Amino acid sequence: MALAIALPIQTGPASAQEGQRRNLLDMFFGDRPRYERYPRYEPRYEPRYQPRYEPRYERGSRYDPRNGSIIEAPARPPRRSTVRASTPREPQPAAPLKAEPAAKLEDARKVLVVGDFLAGGVGSELETAFESSPGVSIVERSNGSSGLVRTDHFDWLAALPGMIDEVKPAVVVVMLGANDRQQMSIGDNKEKFRSDGWFTEYQNRVTQFASAVTSRKIPLLWVGLPAFQSPALTADAVTLNALYRAQVEKAGGEFVDVWDGFVDEEGKFVVTGSDINGQQVRLRGSDGITFTKAGKRKLAFYVERLARRHLGDMASADLLSLDPGSLPTLSMTPSPSDTAVPTQPISLVDPDLDGGSELLGATPPPAVLAETPRDKLVKRGELPEPPAGRIDNYRVEATQ
């Protein structure tokens, strides 16, 4: 009885404490139970559904009921191999092979191309223009960043005579000036571009350069500057071209004007224009200064026309080397004594031997030749009478 009476007393407060409800103040300011303060997360992993793959039974086969393995399989007919008949493709025409450049002759006439980066493009495309001419060889000796101003970088006046002695060219092609829009050193002085002293010294250098070629009786072709995308560059190119033309022609050379090939009808710079075949292509680079391959070919086309005139027959593509290996086989004609004359000789004056002296269908001339109005006008200055009723008929007819 004592134990029964004590048990409700010990368990009563615990059950009352567990069953006591917490109000709003207890939730914010009261102490939380341990299990609520640090809840323990126990994830629940549910087994995923595993489908049962039953073996696929084939008709006519015997299987072991314990594990489903095949005991006896039906005999299968041999598998037929089907071969599809393929239609033969039509043979495609082969791409035309590019003609190999003709081998140059030992005595081929040489064209020396000198200048800056623009001259390098002219030289490379001149090689393309004369690749089928065995009598012409192109020698390109350009320096991309050179000019007539910066002699400390490359001195053309000092290097040109040595190049001519080495190459012995038949024609010299020059294209300079694209890098010369800068300050020039003249002795101890420095002249700015476009000053009077700059133009005086530059003119002397152009004259010396041209005279170094023409004094040796070698044709000189000086290629002018084209238009550029920058208006300032274009204006300077116009000024320099006028200087080149005057000095080169005075020295006995020839100025090649390429300006119209790279501007439109209004004289403005163009990026796209006609190539040498009349097709619309891109001629200039994105910087507005350099040329594309088509532009270089068009630039060289102006030079090619004049160069062929100086090179003469050597620029022909049909030129052959007259060596014993290329000579045709000569057949000797028999002498007249070895050949019998099959027929009697025929007279060239009277082939039919009929005594005729007139051509077939010929009519005898009239006995009296009438004088034409043209003869009257030329010989005596007489005009024919105008027809009646025309405005220049001034005859007055008598009326009854």
UniProtKB/TrEMBL annotation:
Pfam families: DUF459 (PF04311). Coiled coil: none annotated. InterPro entries: DUF459, SGNH_hydro_sf. Residues 39-65, 372-383 have a biased composition (Basic and acidic residues). Residues 328-337 have a biased composition (Low complexity). GO terms for molecular function: hydrolase activity, acting on ester bonds. It comes from Rhizobium deserti. Residues 39-101, 328-400 are annotated as: Disordered. This is DUF459 domain-containing protein. Signal peptide: none annotated.
